[in-house]
Amino acid sequence: xxxxxxxxxxxxxxxxxxxxxxxxxxxxxxxxxxxxxxxxxxxxxxxxxxxxxxxxxxxxxxxxxxxxxxxxxxxxxxxxxxxxxxxxxxxxxxxxxxxxxxxxxxxxxxxxxxxxxxxxxxxxxxxxxxxxxxxxxxxxxxxxxxxxxxxxxxxxxxxxxxxxxxxxxxxxxxxxxxxxxxxxxxxxxxxxxxxxxxxxxxxxxxxxxxxxxxxxxxxxxxxxxxxxxxxxxxxxxxxxxxxxxxxxxxxxxxxxxxxxxxxxxxxxxxxxxxxxxxxxxxxxxxxxxxxxxxxxxxxxxxxxxxxxxxxxxxxxxxxxxxxxxxxxxxxxxxxxxxxxxxxxxxxxxxxxxxxxxxxxxxxxxxxxxxxxxxxxxxxxxxxxxxxxxxxxxxxxxxxxxxxxxxxxxxxxxxxxxxxxxxxxxxxxxxxxxxxxxxxxxxxxxxxxxxxxxxxxxxxxxxxxxxxxxxxxxxxxxxxxxxxxxxxxxxxxxxxxxxxxxxxxxxxxxxxxxxxxxxxxxxxxxxxxxxxxxxxxxxxxxxxxxxxxxxxxxxxxxxxxxxxxxxxxxxxxxxxxxxxxxxxxxxxxxxxxxxxxxxxxxxxxxxxxxxxx
Length: 612
Fold this sequence. Notes:
This protein is of the alpha+beta class and about 600 residues long. The protein is built from 12 helices and 29 strands. The longest helix has 20 residues, at about 35-55.
């Protein structure tokens, strides 16, 4: 039987983000304003009532500010006893008069502080929590928690077993849609619960040695297609995300998209051994009495109550299990093992495009396959490197917590349509008599299957039409658990001329980075491995190429992200090649060319490794 698990998380924030500017409009800033604190606590009570009304238990993440409020502490204790809610601790909600006086800063993102300040703040907040409740929490969280922070918390407070640890695809796209003012970059992490490695929060642990000791959950469950293509803050199972995206009927105040999104998360059990997860993480600032996102308070409240009602209805029918965060951490460790991947075959439920993406995440990689582009890989993060990436003041990455990419179509062009250069993509070209067709132009659909520990994505065949030949080609992409390889088979199912032959060019255009802007590529090295015919190209932006018949492999080493990416091939008349980019197109290309006749198969493997 499928298991659909939901975490509902509330926080009595007391000084909610943005809210002071609303309640104190026209007045000098005062985060201790009584109206602000009173309204915040009232909204928290309403949120709790919504959940409890429909038989749902919550995790109450106490904020630093709420720990100074007797009524908030009393409510948490009462709801723990009466409803089984968990009393947890959030590292969000730091700003309050006491915090600002003590630390003399307006910073509120725990991962952006210096490590010295992180430790001081954590000890302060956890100590205050213990003073109010007499025990240390089992759960904590923030928008993002860097690995050094998680490791410190686990060492100092071993009771912590679960944490909200990243916000899915909260990077340049979110920054731009916040008028270039939201300095939180954390692209490249999992979209569903995982066990973070000690080296990097985004990269799941591959074994017990890498295990940070906690189970991480995402900050909000996002639409894995709409969020990837656009601003994630508009597309999530947090009802006010849907209102912010204006995805509702302004006359009837109905929002079928919210329920469709929850249902699509339920459907992920088909790809994950019968298990699916969803979460709703809400602070009181979203239900401000003055309204938000062009929506009045009445609609804000209705949307939240309706969301809880839907979860409650699913629970009544036995189709949902509500858990607290610590309960979920125990469940997850019993349910999943380290190398087990998270898979999501996701379809557009908003725009009517019928577009499909397939997401795959394990300790070695995060991959996105786009069926609108013939099964091209459009996002690739090399978790195999377990890249150590210190974040915060005093580190090289004060705001940028993203896990770097090798391929990212949104930030590095993808299938390129400009007059020069290339974008990052992993695809193939079919050539015949001087004509060339890139599979990126061949829209298709995919079907998921599993054979033991192997996950298989089988794409519908596509017809490739040349002037004098039609080729029916099918792509099969295979992910083997515990491996850092992606296997791609191209099957020729039929040709209009059974005696014809075509050339295939399997290629990967890559680079590295976390934003739209290029990094220095001059430390990269490209190589064709072919015995005595091997060629090495140190990257110098000189547009050089090298190739070899029957090449054993082609690879690129990227020292800045400690990654070695390679391709190998099994096919007729194979020829491996490498290509250096140039300043206007600062990419690198790995590839194999070969020949294909009717009923033949051309197979390549893309492999990710840590480069020491």
